[in-house]
């Protein structure tokens, strides 16, 4: 592989959302890994007093007792069945298929993943409420990447 092609390949991977890329041609193997580019800095408030472990243990026990098993609903993760581009709406000027807090039924369209110029509709696997949208519109997704979390309806 000539250096110009290699430079173009490096630039393409660098400008994409890919975190791992592997390529092999004529016995030459190229592997590129990219660490997370962004980070978030949160300001942590300063503690005036030290907290002892005894107080932490007491609070942990209280929070466990407050959560009852019947209050917890099953939550499923809708994962990407393919590598492609995630679209939350049928067109750029349309409303998204679903929003957080929206109730969905099995078979409802959640999003579209474009792969090789083919638009693939991703449908809800269960009845429930959208708890989280895990990716942004136009973002590249990988096989098995979480797209949505759906809180299943109680049965």
Describe the secondary-structure layout:
Elements: H1 3-15, E1 20-25, E2 28-33, H2 53-66, E3 75-79, E4 84-87, E5 103-104, E6 109-115, E7 118-123, E8 128-133, E9 140-141, E10 146-152
Antiparallel strand pairs: 1-2, 3-10, 4-6, 4-9, 5-8, 6-7, 8-10
Report the span from N to C terminus. 59 Å
What order do the SSEs take from the amino end to the carboxyl end, as H and E? HEEHEEEEEEEE
Shape: elongated
Helical run tally: 2
* Number of DSSP strand runs: 10
Class by SSE composition: alpha+beta
Average pLDDT, to the nearest integer?
Answer: 76
Q: Main sheet?
A: 4 strands, antiparallel
Low-confidence region ranges: 36-42, 62-72
Helix content: 10-25%
Oligomer category: single chain
What does the model show?
It is built from 2 helices and 10 strands; from the N terminus they run αββαββββββββ. The protein is an alpha+beta fold and 155 residues long. A hairpin with a 2-residue loop joins strand 1 (20-25) and strand 2. A 4-stranded antiparallel beta sheet has the order 3-10-8-5, with no helix packed on it. A 4-stranded antiparallel beta sheet has the order 7-6-4-9, with no helix packed on it. It has a two-stranded antiparallel ribbon with strand order 1-2. The relative contact order is 0.16.
């Amino acid at each position: 592989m000539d250096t110009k092609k290699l430079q173009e390949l490096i630039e393409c991977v660098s400008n994409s959302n890919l975190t791992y890329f592997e390529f092999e041609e004529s016995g030459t193997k190229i592997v590129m890994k990219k660490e997370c580019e962004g980070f978030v800095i949160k300001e942590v408030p300063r503690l005036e007093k030290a907290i002892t472990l005894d107080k932490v243990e007491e609070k942990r026990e209280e929070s466990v007792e407050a959560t009852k098993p019947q209050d917890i609903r099953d939550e499923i993760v809708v994962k990407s069945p393919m590598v492609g581009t995630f679209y939350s709406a049928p067109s750029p000027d349309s409303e998204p298929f679903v929003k957080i807090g929206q109730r969905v039924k099995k078979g409802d369209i959640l999003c579209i993943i474009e792969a090789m110029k083919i638009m693939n509709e991703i449908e809800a696997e269960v009845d429930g409420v959208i708890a989280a949208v895990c990716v942004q519109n136009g973002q590249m997704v990988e096989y098995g990447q979480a797209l949505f979390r759906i809180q299943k309806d109680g049965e």
